[in-house]
Amino acid sequence: MRRGELLGAALHPHALSQAFGRLVKKAKVPRIRLHDLRHTHATLLLKAGVPLEVVSERLGHSTPAFTMVVYQHVLPGKQRGAANTFVALLSPGPTFEVTVGER
Predict the structure, then answer these.
(1) Are 66 and 56 in contact (CB under 8 A)?
(2) Separation of alpha carbons 54 and 94, rounded Å
(3) Span 32-54, mean pLDDT?
(4) 4 to each of 7, 8, 23, 92, how far by Cα in Å?
(5) What counts of helices (H) and strands (E) characterise the chain?
(6) How confident is the model at residue 87 (pLDDT cuts 50, 70, 90)?
(7) Distance CA 34, CA 31 (A)
(8) Coil, strand, or helix at residue 103?
(9) Residues with Cβ < 8 Å from 16, sequence gap 6 or more?
(10) pLDDT digits (tens, 9 = 90+) for 23-36
């Protein structure tokens, strides 16, 4: 098969991983697997506040619940924000921030 005939053709996952490995080596950057980029992508999006449902769709997960199980370690700081929002909603006067039990 000639190079032009490959355009749009399905690639075997191993071939893609090998090509990525060659690019990493040529770029002289620390060795990283292609799959590691997938995790980095998801982690950065979640930390930036992109909704879990959107990240789940981008990863092709069947449900956001699966994404949550895999990436729950990324979201512990969200608990403090939720607690502060809840306190603000209940407090008619000046608000304060929750600083204990950061999960």
Answers:
(1) yes
(2) 35
(3) 91
(4) 6, 9, 21, 68
(5) 5, 0
(6) confident
(7) 10
(8) coil
(9) 34
(10) 999 999 898 888 89
Q: Residue 74: what residue type? A: V
Q: How far apart are CA 56 and CA 68, in angstroms?
A: 8
Q: How far is CA 31 from the centre of its chain?
A: 20
- Determine the residue type at 47: K
Average pLDDT, the chain: 83
65 with 38: CB under 8 angstroms? no
Retrieve residue 86's tokens.
């809840």
Residues 6+ apart with CB under 8 A from 71: 42, 43, 46, 55
Torsion angle of C-alpha atoms 103, 71, 32, 38, degrees rounded to 10: -140
User: Rounded to whole angstroms, how far apart are CA atoms 95 and 76?
Assistant: 22
